[in-house]
Amino acid sequence: MTTRSSRLFSTTVLTLGFAFLYLPILILMIFSFNESRLVTVWGGFSTKWYSAVLANEAFLDAAWVTLQVAFVSSTLATVLGTMAALVLVRVGPFRGRTLFSGMIYAPLVMPEVITGLSLLLFFVALNIDRGIVTITLAHITFSMCYASVVISSRLVSFDRSIEEAAMDLGCTPLRAFMTVTLPIILPAIVSAWLLSFTLSLDDLVIASFTTGPSATTLPIKIYSQIRLGVTPEINALSTIMILLISCGVITASLMTKRAEQRKARERAEAVRNS
Hints:
- The structure is a single chain.
- This protein is an all-alpha fold.
- The protein has a domain at 68-229: MetI-like fold (Orthogonal Bundle), CATH 1.10.3720.
- Helices cover 80% and strands 0% of the residues.
- It has helices at 2-31, 48-55, 57-90, 97-109, 112-125, 132-156, 160-168, 173-202, 205-210, 218-226, 232-273.
């Protein structure tokens, strides 16, 4: 009876938690097909708001800027995060290690308002015109720490004897890293890239400090529209973003799972052959 009650309690809590997280998203997606312009009144099924979004040049321009910034910032943040993770995990104690690790992890706990304001003052002091470049630099700044954390967790559990065996067979440290270490930690690198990409797509506070009149990201555009009132057009745009991100995450998960299965089969074959 106790076990059954505990199972019922866990199921109820889990159901309520998922409902709290995903029910608003489901309602948003349903009302994106609403015929009526009133988002709280169902007027029938229609896809006209999706056509309106695709015909809205302001939304399309903001989406293009957002994708550019997200792709470049997530790629550079993943590269820098990988380098930082290698230094933190592979390099032994060195002078300034505590300061270095603190600077890497500081954006994780720093309020976004403080980060955005400090970056704004930095760009103003250097007399850099705010636009796509400043937004990209800002997103690299806070995305790199997340990428470093994800990749560091994989490097900590990495069996270095495999890499050492490759070097014993004649590989240079660089070649051993590229041919042995990198393929093994690649799922973590992909996860770090996806996390950085999602954070860049979602950012509003930091981008609002570092943007200029020549560049407006999609979250800023949506926020400015919502201040005038939520419309089904906003719901349609949000639904498109949700579907695109979901497809990307599912595709990456499937690719990672297939890669792990292939490596497991290769290891099993190697064991049988030996």
